[in-house]
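Methods — Computational structure assignment.
A single polypeptide chain was analysed. Its primary sequence is given first, followed by the predicted tertiary structure written as structure tokens.
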Amino acid sequence: MQIRYFQGRDLADICQVASTSLLEHYDPNLFVQLVPYWPEGLIVIEDMGRVVGFVFGIRSGERQARILMLAINDRYRGGGLGTMLTEEFFRECAKRGICQVTLEVRVSNDKAMRFYQRLGFFNVRIVQRYYSNGEDGLFMMRYL
């Protein structure tokens, strides 16, 4: 396993992991358009040359970042890869003086909420109809 920054050749793998792991469907252009603003915000983990998970975040202020997506291939879940990726994302944030990280998670996704709480995130508020299917999102935050 290797953790590293996104490279252009990873786009197909990232889209595959996202489409099978997340309920939202993301246009590949989202990655292409946002990565140039903060290349270190898209971190992948690969196994035998294939991306099996990634965390994708953006700077949302001078001292803030926002995790847009965290996805792990189903066959690799439960092995700590999500924690490794998120902690690497925190390190990248700290290098840049970012002291606050936020994200949204589906209110129905108890497993994800517990995961983020274990990493130090706390619940801030419900965002009504945040997701494309109308489901509410839970806005969470963590200080670094």
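Note: The longest helix spans residues 81-95.
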